[in-house]
Recover the amino acids of this structure.
């Protein structure tokens, strides 16, 4: 079966899907994106993803490429046309196509939209989660507006590539104060020796992850001890558990940070429980 992408109003073969060379996303990284999990054919937390897309767009003064309901329809179409049962749907919106010029293009330039979807293996993810991942710390190298989900991901690419070259699956950014901000494409969490879950507040330095929000609700529902505050890399080294969250990873245990083994070197009970419960909570809202 050939994959299908949606590009500016048309469903096209993925192999032929293309945007113009003067798309501002291509030339200036002048665009935003969302990644939404597809679970058993349903889109997980799609209203929240579209709310965040709306916020990213308005922060950059880019318009919606079409009505929000139409965007949601296209997301579902692309998932359906690619027969994705479990996987991801990706949407990217840029400021559109215009002669290269740093200034915003004329009013009549329409934003560009691209939607793709792909399958992922829940069994492979489960196997990974049973093992845990290693993360590698990296000095914060991004602009301060990381709350906007822009396609300008070169700093993240470099941080994650460094992690890969050092045996890790994710990078953990560390800011000038020694605090872990977040992962290259995930939010970061620890469980202290006292059993308290800690994650950085979303008021600054991180993207307000949708998975993070869903897990926070779960944490409250389960009555787990919890603090939303910055934590240092040293604190993370000494933690009982660590894990990351994202639409791509869900709750993924971290068993090693740099050359330090976390806890007993196996996925922790809190992370494992939150992962197990995740879809029971989000399933209620997945449509
Ligand atoms: N990344 N922080 C960063 C920097 C991210 O890029 C992401 C998501 C997250 C987690 O957000 P959410 O829970 O809404 O997925 C946190 C996506 C998945 C990506 O770039 O592939």
């Amino acid at each position: 079966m050939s994959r299908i992408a949606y590009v500016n109003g048309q469903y096209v073969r993925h192999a032929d899907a293309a945007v113009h060379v003067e798309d501002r996303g291509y030339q200036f990284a002048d665009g935003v994106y969302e990644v939404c999990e597809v679970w058993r054919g349903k889109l997980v937390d799609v209203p929240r993803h579209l709310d965040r897309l709306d916020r990213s767009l308005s922060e950059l003064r880019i318009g919606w490429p079409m009505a929000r309901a139409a965007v949601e329809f296209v997301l579902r179409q692309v998932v359906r046309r690619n027969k994705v049962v479990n996987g991801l749907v990706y949407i990217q919106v840029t400021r559109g196509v215009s002669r290269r010029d740093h200034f915003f293009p004329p009013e009549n330039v329409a934003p560009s939209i691209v939607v793709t979807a792909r399958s992922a293996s829940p069994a492979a993810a489960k196997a990974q989660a049973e093992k845990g991942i290693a993360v590698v710390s990296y000095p914060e190298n991004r602009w301060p507006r990381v709350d906007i989900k822009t396609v300008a991901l070169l700093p993240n690419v470099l941080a994650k590539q460094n992690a890969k070259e050092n045996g890790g699956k994710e990078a953990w950014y560390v800011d000038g104060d020694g605090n872990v901000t977040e992962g290259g494409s995930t939010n970061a969490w620890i469980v202290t020796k006292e059993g308290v879950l800690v994650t950085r507040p979303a008021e600054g330095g991180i993207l307000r992850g949708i998975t993070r929000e869903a897990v926070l609700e779960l944490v409250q529902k389960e009555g787990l001890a919890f603090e939303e505050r910055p934590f240092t890399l040293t604190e993370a080294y000494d933690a009982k558990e660590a894990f990351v969250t994202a639409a791509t990873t869900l709750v993924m245990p971290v068993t090693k940070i740099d050359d330090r083994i976390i806890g007993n070197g196996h996925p922790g009970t809190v992370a494992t429980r939150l992962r197990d419960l995740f879809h029971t909570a989000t399933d209620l809202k997945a449509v």
Summary: The pocket of N-(5'-phosphopyridoxyl)-D-alanine is lined by residues 35, 182, 185-187, 207, 209-212, 245-248 (CB under 6 Å). The mean pLDDT is 97. The two ends are 25 Å apart (CA to CA). The CA atoms of residues 95 and 104 lie 8 Å apart.
